[in-house]
Amino acid sequence: MFITEVCRNRCATRFSQALRSVVIGLSFLSASINPTLQAQKIEKVERKLIRKVTPDYPWDLKRSSIGGMVRLDIVVSPGGSVNTVLVVGGNPVLAECAIKAVKKWKYTPADTETNVRVNVSFDPRH
Hints:
Blueprint lengths: L1 H42 L5 E3 L7 H5 L4 E9 L5 E8 L2 H11 L3 E2 L6 E9 L4
Antiparallel strand pairs: 1-4, 2-3, 2-5
C-alpha cells in the first residue's frame, strides 16, 4: 500500500508539473499572438466614399424586369481610386455594368490599400 501511495504522489506531481508547463507555454503563445490580433483590428479602416457613379442599366434587362444585386470585392488604393474589382456574385451582364461604374468611384485617402465589399443593386422599377 505504501508503494502505491508513493507512485500516486509522484504521478500527481509529474502531472501537475507538466500541466503547469503547458499553461505557461500557452500564456507565452497567447501573449505573442494577441498583439497581432489587436494590430489587425486597428488596421481595419472604413473608407468614406467621396464620388459614386451610378451604373448604366441595360435597357433590355430593365424592360424584361431582370434585376438583382451584384456583389464586388474591390481594392482601393491609398490615394482613393479603385484598383481592382472582383465579381463575387450576381448576373454577369449586370456585373459588367457595375464594374464599369465602380472603377470610377473615389474614396478618401488612407495610408494603405483597403479591401471593400460592395453591393450594387439593380432595380427594374426605378
